[in-house]
UniProtKB/TrEMBL annotation:
PANTHER family: CLEAVAGE AND POLYADENYLATION SPECIFICITY FACTOR FAMILY MEMBER, INTEGRATOR COMPLEX SUBUNIT 11
Keywords: Hydrolase
Stored Gene3D superfamilies: 3.40.50.10890, Ribonuclease Z/Hydroxyacylglutathione hydrolase-like
InterPro entries in alphabetical order: Beta_Casp, MBL, Metallo-B-lactamas, RibonucZ/Hydroxyglut_hydro, RMMBL
Species of the source: Spirosoma sordidisoli
Protein name: MBL fold metallo-hydrolase
Domain of life: Bacteria
Keyword Hydrolase: yes
Domain annotation Beta-Casp: ranges: 253-378
Metallo-beta-lactamase domain boundaries: 13-248
């Protein structure tokens, strides 16, 4: 059996890991879009033949894990895609939005490539390809084994990273022996404001482990709501400016709405408009409401008391593009929450472009941002950034709240892995992380007793 790494190898986005059994059966773990600057060509080809892939198992709905599934289907993949019901519902929202973004942005991308003398690119996929991909998705419940062909058994356990997110355990039976492979997907946090804690998983021989925050401990946030309220008051009340929050449409946006809902219920939130400026975020919030069975006991108790954790006075869900443009013309203070979380696409990028030179503006970053993304540049403190091909000085204040991060830090990831006997794990492969962070995470894992920790590069192929 082999495994080959076609994405999220010494980088964060583009998650794709292809397993080939001794009988030639191919199982793809995730099929994500590469995101960030200079990734257009990376998304054009897979490095393997999609028509030869027999099965796919999907960890969760984030675009860096799902965003190329419709292209995989477009190029010939016809097998089942195993994932949770919540993930399927989110993919219906997120992949349709992704298809529209691909088509809308292609003209601008090709004009830029033409100026540089580079060949034009074809659209990655369209809405018909998304519909076909959705038709191939099969729902699987947490904790219930399912057959993948004749010789492989899968098991999904709650990873607590996103609504419906799962870690994947595979038991592969060949030549009279069993190999047990585990894929962490993205590891959530034990104190998520909406989701349950991550579940333990069966003992594995081989582990594919994410490493996004393998080099850090998240700063303690004794009162996240108080911190958020301080930023709101300083920006919107004292400076009379706009608070812009790039946030992933699912979970991160709803966590922010939930926090603001609580502040509103407590009578602490200033009376000012709060815009959720994204059709996808609006639809994703409805999906969240439909899957309260994935919520933790604390928010369920709040919903029972409050009635709705995602609705309060002066909250406006904006889908119409003309309404979105009108927000830019508004000079009054307000809060604008919109994807993408890395500020690489979507309406938030336009809001940042129109307000980044205003010193009364605050841009609040509440999740991971790839170093090559606009959010990464802002987080790094760059004095100038490129937006839609133009350079802009960063006069706005940039704030960071890591307490909203959906990725576990290295201590939380070690706790996640504590259900394993390190002596029985043959190899840990580190994926979904920048290389310098992976080197630190490798040391932490070795100190915890994992003897063989490897950091595969793009296209590396390993015999198990």
């Amino acid at each position: 059996m082999t495994i080959q790494f076609f994405g999220a190898a010494r980088t964060v986005t583009g998650s794709k890991h292809l397993i080939t059994t001794d009988r030639g059966v191919q199982i793809l773990l995730d099929c994500g879009l590469f995101q960030g600057i200079n990734t257009d060509e990376l998304n054009q080809t897979f490095g393997f033949d999609p028509a030869r892939v027999d099965y796919m198992v999907l960890s969760h709905a984030h675009i860096d894990h799902t965003g190329l599934i419709p292209r995989l289907v477009k190029q010939g993949f016809r097998g089942p895609i195993y994932t949770t019901a919540s993930t399927i519902d989110l993919c219906n929202v997120m992949l349709m939005d992704s298809a529209r973004i691909q088509e809308r942005d292609l003209d601008r991308v090709n004009k830029r490539r033409s100026r540089r003398g580079e060949p034009e690119l074809d659209v990655l996929y369209d809405e018909q390809d998304v519909e076909q991909a959705l038709s191939q998705m099969q729902p699987v419940r947490y904790g219930q084994p399912f057959a993948i062909g004749d010789t492989v058994t899968g098991l999904l356990t709650d990873a607590a990273h996103l609504l419906g997110s799962a870690a994947v355990s595979l038991t592969i039976r060949e030549q009279g022996a069993e190999k047990r492979l585990f894929f962490s997907g993205d590891i959530g946090r034990p104190d998520d404001k909406i989701l349950r804690r991550p579940d333990p998983f069966p003992q594995a021989d081989y582990i594919l482990c994410e490493s996004t925050y393998g080099d850090r401990i998240h700063e303690a946030e004794p009162d996240m709501k108080a911190h958020l309220l301080r930023i709101v008051e300083d920006t919107c009340v004292k400076k009379r400016g706009k608070l812009l929050i790039p946030a992933f449409a699912v979970d991160r946006t709803q966590e922010l709405i939930y926090a603001l809902d609580q502040l509103s219920s407590e009578g602490l939130l200033p009376r000012l408009p709060v815009y959720i400026d994204s059709p996808m975020s609006v639809k994703a919030t409805e999906v969240m409401r439909d899957h309260e069975d994935d919520f933790n006991p604390e928010i369920l108790a709040y919903i029972k008391k409050d009635g709705d954790a995602f609705e309060f006075p002066n909250l406006h869900y904006v889908s119409d593009v003309n309404e979105s443009k009108a927000i830019n013309d508004q000079r009054e203070p307000c809060i604008i929450i919109a994807p993408s979380g890395m500020a690489e696409a979507g309406r938030i990028k336009h809001h940042i472009k129109n307000n980044i030179e205003n010193p009364n503006t605050t841009i609040l970053l509440v999740g991971y941002a790839s170093p090559s993304s606009l959010g990464g540049a802002l987080k790094r403190g760059d004095a100038e950034v490129t937006i839609f091909g133009e350079r802009y000085p960063v006069n706005a204040r940039v704030e960071v709240m890591d307490s909203f991060s959906a990725h576990g830090d290295y201590r939380e990831m070690l706790d996640f892995l504590s259900c394993q006997d390190p002596a029985r794990v043959k190899t840990v492969f580190l994926v979904h992380g920048e290389y310098d962070k992976q080197l630190v995470w490798k040391e932490k894992l070795e100190a915890a007793g994992f003897a063989d920790v490897q950091i595969p590069d793009m296209m590396d192929k390993v015999d198990l």
